[in-house]
Amino acid sequence: MSALKEEDVRQVVRLQKEDGRCLLIKLLKWETFDEEKDLKPGILLDYLYNTIIFAAEKGFPWPTVALAVCFSEELLHETEGKTMQEALQKLRDKCKQYQHKLNPNFLEHLVNHLLGTFFKHYRLYQFVLCEPREIDQTIYHLEVHIPEEVPPLKDGIDEKLWNYQKYMTELSEAEAQLRADMLAFRETMQLKSEQELEKFYEDLKFQEKEVVDRANLEKIVKDAHTIQMTIASEILQKEIETTFQVLDVKFQKITMPFPVSKSFHSSTKGIKIVTMRTKK
Question: What is the pTM of this model?
Protein backbone atom coordinates (compact mmCIF):
# COMPACT_ATOMS: atom_id res chain seq x y z
CA MET A 1 0.00 0.00 0.00
CA SER A 2 1.09 3.57 -0.61
CA ALA A 3 2.51 5.61 2.22
CA LEU A 4 2.30 9.00 0.56
CA LYS A 5 2.95 11.96 2.78
CA GLU A 6 1.68 15.51 2.71
CA GLU A 7 4.75 16.80 0.87
CA ASP A 8 4.56 13.96 -1.67
CA VAL A 9 1.07 14.78 -2.90
CA ARG A 10 1.88 18.48 -2.89
CA GLN A 11 4.80 17.89 -5.30
CA VAL A 12 2.69 15.70 -7.60
CA VAL A 13 -0.06 18.33 -7.89
CA ARG A 14 2.42 21.09 -8.74
CA LEU A 15 3.73 19.23 -11.80
CA GLN A 16 2.23 18.72 -15.24
CA LYS A 17 0.40 15.42 -15.71
CA GLU A 18 3.17 13.34 -17.27
CA ASP A 19 5.81 14.67 -14.89
CA GLY A 20 3.43 14.16 -11.97
CA ARG A 21 2.80 10.54 -12.99
CA CYS A 22 6.55 9.90 -13.27
CA LEU A 23 7.12 11.37 -9.81
CA LEU A 24 4.27 9.27 -8.41
CA ILE A 25 5.95 6.11 -9.72
CA LYS A 26 9.09 7.03 -7.77
CA LEU A 27 7.15 7.92 -4.63
CA LEU A 28 5.27 4.61 -4.77
CA LYS A 29 8.61 2.85 -5.35
CA TRP A 30 7.33 1.07 -8.43
CA GLU A 31 9.62 -0.36 -11.07
CA THR A 32 9.51 1.35 -14.44
CA PHE A 33 7.17 -0.26 -16.95
CA ASP A 34 6.07 0.01 -20.56
CA GLU A 35 2.41 1.08 -20.67
CA GLU A 36 1.98 -0.31 -24.19
CA LYS A 37 3.11 -3.79 -23.14
CA ASP A 38 1.75 -3.82 -19.58
CA LEU A 39 -1.67 -2.18 -19.28
CA LYS A 40 -2.36 -2.91 -15.60
CA PRO A 41 0.21 -0.66 -13.82
CA GLY A 42 -0.65 2.23 -16.11
CA ILE A 43 -4.35 2.05 -15.18
CA LEU A 44 -3.55 1.74 -11.46
CA LEU A 45 -1.26 4.75 -11.73
CA ASP A 46 -3.99 6.83 -13.39
CA TYR A 47 -6.44 5.69 -10.72
CA LEU A 48 -4.23 7.02 -7.90
CA TYR A 49 -3.11 10.13 -9.78
CA ASN A 50 -6.70 11.13 -10.57
CA THR A 51 -7.61 10.70 -6.89
CA ILE A 52 -4.83 13.11 -5.90
CA ILE A 53 -5.86 15.71 -8.47
CA PHE A 54 -9.56 15.39 -7.55
CA ALA A 55 -8.91 15.81 -3.82
CA ALA A 56 -6.59 18.78 -4.39
CA GLU A 57 -9.09 20.53 -6.69
CA LYS A 58 -11.87 19.99 -4.13
CA GLY A 59 -9.79 21.84 -1.56
CA PHE A 60 -8.83 18.87 0.62
CA PRO A 61 -6.02 19.74 3.03
CA TRP A 62 -2.74 18.11 1.97
CA PRO A 63 -2.82 15.51 4.78
CA THR A 64 -6.39 14.66 3.78
CA VAL A 65 -5.31 14.29 0.14
CA ALA A 66 -2.79 11.66 1.24
CA LEU A 67 -5.52 9.87 3.24
CA ALA A 68 -7.84 9.95 0.21
CA VAL A 69 -5.18 8.18 -1.87
CA CYS A 70 -4.74 5.55 0.83
CA PHE A 71 -8.53 5.05 1.01
CA SER A 72 -8.83 4.63 -2.75
CA GLU A 73 -5.90 2.23 -3.04
CA GLU A 74 -7.12 0.02 -0.20
CA LEU A 75 -10.60 -0.12 -1.73
CA LEU A 76 -9.15 -1.06 -5.11
CA HIS A 77 -7.22 -4.04 -3.73
CA GLU A 78 -9.99 -5.20 -1.37
CA THR A 79 -12.57 -5.30 -4.16
CA GLU A 80 -10.36 -7.27 -6.53
CA GLY A 81 -12.31 -10.26 -7.82
CA LYS A 82 -15.53 -9.22 -6.02
CA THR A 83 -19.00 -8.73 -7.46
CA MET A 84 -20.53 -5.28 -7.65
CA GLN A 85 -22.68 -5.91 -4.55
CA GLU A 86 -19.66 -7.14 -2.60
CA ALA A 87 -17.63 -4.14 -3.74
CA LEU A 88 -20.32 -1.69 -2.57
CA GLN A 89 -20.34 -3.39 0.81
CA LYS A 90 -16.57 -2.97 0.96
CA LEU A 91 -17.09 0.73 0.26
CA ARG A 92 -19.48 1.02 3.19
CA ASP A 93 -17.02 -0.77 5.46
CA LYS A 94 -14.24 1.48 4.30
CA CYS A 95 -16.31 4.58 5.07
CA LYS A 96 -16.88 3.35 8.62
CA GLN A 97 -13.17 2.69 8.95
CA TYR A 98 -12.25 6.23 7.84
CA GLN A 99 -15.15 8.17 9.41
CA HIS A 100 -12.93 9.41 12.24
CA LYS A 101 -9.94 10.11 9.94
CA LEU A 102 -11.70 12.11 7.21
CA ASN A 103 -14.03 15.05 7.54
CA PRO A 104 -17.59 13.88 6.66
CA ASN A 105 -17.83 16.48 3.89
CA PHE A 106 -14.53 15.38 2.33
CA LEU A 107 -15.47 11.73 2.75
CA GLU A 108 -18.74 12.33 0.92
CA HIS A 109 -16.92 14.04 -1.96
CA LEU A 110 -14.46 11.14 -2.20
CA VAL A 111 -17.25 8.52 -2.22
CA ASN A 112 -19.11 10.40 -4.97
CA HIS A 113 -15.88 10.58 -6.95
CA LEU A 114 -15.34 6.82 -6.66
CA LEU A 115 -18.96 6.07 -7.56
CA GLY A 116 -18.64 8.20 -10.69
CA THR A 117 -15.31 6.75 -11.79
CA PHE A 118 -14.24 3.44 -10.27
CA PHE A 119 -17.69 1.92 -9.79
CA LYS A 120 -19.00 3.33 -13.06
CA HIS A 121 -16.36 1.26 -14.88
CA TYR A 122 -16.13 -1.48 -12.27
CA ARG A 123 -16.24 -4.42 -14.71
CA LEU A 124 -13.48 -2.88 -16.79
CA TYR A 125 -11.28 -2.45 -13.72
CA GLN A 126 -11.96 -6.05 -12.72
CA PHE A 127 -11.06 -7.27 -16.18
CA VAL A 128 -7.74 -5.42 -16.07
CA LEU A 129 -6.95 -6.41 -12.49
CA CYS A 130 -7.98 -10.07 -12.61
CA GLU A 131 -7.63 -11.30 -16.18
CA PRO A 132 -4.12 -12.25 -17.37
CA ARG A 133 -3.17 -10.43 -20.52
CA GLU A 134 -1.38 -12.23 -23.34
CA ILE A 135 0.90 -9.96 -25.28
CA ASP A 136 1.05 -10.56 -29.02
CA GLN A 137 3.23 -7.77 -30.25
CA THR A 138 5.42 -7.46 -33.31
CA ILE A 139 8.11 -4.82 -33.31
CA TYR A 140 9.54 -3.52 -36.57
CA HIS A 141 12.68 -1.41 -36.58
CA LEU A 142 12.25 0.88 -39.55
CA GLU A 143 15.06 3.00 -40.84
CA VAL A 144 13.96 6.52 -41.61
CA HIS A 145 15.66 8.13 -44.58
CA ILE A 146 15.59 11.90 -44.40
CA PRO A 147 14.94 13.39 -47.85
CA GLU A 148 17.84 15.15 -49.45
CA GLU A 149 17.91 18.90 -49.34
CA VAL A 150 16.11 20.26 -52.36
CA PRO A 151 18.32 22.65 -54.37
CA PRO A 152 16.97 26.10 -55.27
CA LEU A 153 14.57 26.22 -58.19
CA LYS A 154 16.84 28.74 -59.96
CA ASP A 155 19.42 25.95 -60.33
CA GLY A 156 16.95 23.65 -62.06
CA ILE A 157 17.31 22.57 -65.70
CA ASP A 158 15.00 21.18 -68.33
CA GLU A 159 14.10 17.51 -67.81
CA LYS A 160 15.29 16.45 -71.27
CA LEU A 161 18.60 18.23 -70.76
CA TRP A 162 18.98 16.58 -67.35
CA ASN A 163 18.36 13.14 -68.85
CA TYR A 164 20.84 13.92 -71.64
CA GLN A 165 23.55 14.95 -69.17
CA LYS A 166 22.84 11.89 -67.02
CA TYR A 167 23.13 9.59 -70.04
CA MET A 168 26.39 11.22 -71.12
CA THR A 169 27.79 10.79 -67.63
CA GLU A 170 26.86 7.11 -67.67
CA LEU A 171 28.58 6.66 -71.05
CA SER A 172 31.72 8.39 -69.77
CA GLU A 173 31.74 6.17 -66.69
CA ALA A 174 31.29 3.07 -68.88
CA GLU A 175 34.21 4.15 -71.07
CA ALA A 176 36.43 4.76 -68.04
CA GLN A 177 35.47 1.35 -66.64
CA LEU A 178 36.37 -0.38 -69.91
CA ARG A 179 39.81 1.25 -69.90
CA ALA A 180 40.35 0.39 -66.22
CA ASP A 181 39.35 -3.24 -66.85
CA MET A 182 41.76 -3.43 -69.79
CA LEU A 183 44.62 -2.05 -67.72
CA ALA A 184 43.92 -4.53 -64.92
CA PHE A 185 43.74 -7.40 -67.44
CA ARG A 186 47.07 -6.42 -69.02
CA GLU A 187 48.79 -6.28 -65.62
CA THR A 188 47.31 -9.65 -64.62
CA MET A 189 48.43 -11.33 -67.84
CA GLN A 190 51.92 -9.86 -67.63
CA LEU A 191 52.24 -11.21 -64.11
CA LYS A 192 50.98 -14.59 -65.35
CA SER A 193 53.61 -14.54 -68.12
CA GLU A 194 56.39 -13.86 -65.63
CA GLN A 195 55.18 -16.64 -63.32
CA GLU A 196 54.94 -19.20 -66.17
CA LEU A 197 58.40 -18.31 -67.47
CA GLU A 198 59.85 -18.53 -63.99
CA LYS A 199 58.31 -21.97 -63.54
CA PHE A 200 59.54 -22.97 -67.01
CA TYR A 201 63.13 -22.01 -66.18
CA GLU A 202 62.94 -23.77 -62.83
CA ASP A 203 61.87 -26.98 -64.55
CA LEU A 204 64.97 -26.86 -66.75
CA LYS A 205 67.53 -28.81 -64.73
CA PHE A 206 70.99 -28.60 -66.25
CA GLN A 207 74.00 -30.19 -64.73
CA GLU A 208 76.91 -27.88 -63.96
CA LYS A 209 79.04 -27.30 -67.07
CA GLU A 210 76.55 -29.32 -69.11
CA VAL A 211 76.72 -28.62 -72.84
CA VAL A 212 73.29 -28.16 -74.47
CA ASP A 213 73.08 -29.25 -78.08
CA ARG A 214 71.58 -27.10 -80.78
CA ALA A 215 68.29 -29.01 -81.03
CA ASN A 216 67.52 -28.79 -77.29
CA LEU A 217 68.47 -25.11 -77.21
CA GLU A 218 66.13 -24.37 -80.11
CA LYS A 219 63.32 -26.24 -78.31
CA ILE A 220 63.90 -24.27 -75.09
CA VAL A 221 63.84 -20.95 -76.95
CA LYS A 222 60.72 -22.00 -78.88
CA ASP A 223 58.86 -23.06 -75.71
CA ALA A 224 59.74 -19.82 -73.92
CA HIS A 225 58.69 -17.84 -76.97
CA THR A 226 55.38 -19.76 -77.11
CA ILE A 227 54.59 -18.84 -73.51
CA GLN A 228 55.20 -15.17 -74.20
CA MET A 229 53.31 -15.17 -77.50
CA THR A 230 50.31 -16.94 -75.95
CA ILE A 231 50.04 -14.30 -73.26
CA ALA A 232 50.64 -11.50 -75.76
CA SER A 233 47.94 -12.93 -78.04
CA GLU A 234 45.40 -12.95 -75.20
CA ILE A 235 46.30 -9.36 -74.31
CA LEU A 236 46.00 -8.29 -77.95
CA GLN A 237 42.63 -10.02 -78.32
CA LYS A 238 41.35 -8.28 -75.19
CA GLU A 239 42.63 -4.90 -76.38
CA ILE A 240 40.85 -5.33 -79.71
CA GLU A 241 37.57 -6.20 -78.00
CA THR A 242 37.94 -3.28 -75.59
CA THR A 243 38.77 -0.88 -78.42
CA PHE A 244 35.59 -1.81 -80.28
CA GLN A 245 33.58 -1.38 -77.08
CA VAL A 246 35.12 2.05 -76.45
CA LEU A 247 34.41 3.06 -80.03
CA ASP A 248 30.80 1.97 -79.61
CA VAL A 249 30.48 4.17 -76.51
CA LYS A 250 32.03 7.12 -78.33
CA PHE A 251 29.66 6.55 -81.24
CA GLN A 252 26.70 6.68 -78.87
CA LYS A 253 27.98 9.98 -77.50
CA ILE A 254 28.27 11.47 -80.97
CA THR A 255 24.91 10.23 -82.28
CA MET A 256 22.92 11.17 -79.16
CA PRO A 257 20.94 14.28 -80.21
CA PHE A 258 21.31 17.30 -77.98
CA PRO A 259 17.90 18.24 -76.52
CA VAL A 260 16.43 21.58 -77.50
CA SER A 261 14.73 23.31 -74.57
CA LYS A 262 11.20 24.69 -74.81
CA SER A 263 12.46 28.16 -74.04
CA PHE A 264 14.59 28.05 -77.21
CA HIS A 265 11.60 27.03 -79.31
CA SER A 266 9.43 29.75 -77.84
CA SER A 267 12.07 32.43 -78.34
CA THR A 268 12.67 31.50 -82.00
CA LYS A 269 9.01 30.97 -82.79
CA GLY A 270 7.76 33.40 -85.35
CA ILE A 271 11.21 34.41 -86.66
CA LYS A 272 11.17 34.60 -90.45
CA ILE A 273 14.40 33.74 -92.23
CA VAL A 274 14.90 35.68 -95.48
CA THR A 275 17.57 34.81 -98.03
CA MET A 276 18.65 37.46 -100.50
CA ARG A 277 20.30 36.91 -103.84
CA THR A 278 22.23 39.45 -105.88
CA LYS A 279 22.08 39.58 -109.64
CA LYS A 280 25.30 39.39 -111.52
Answer: 0.48
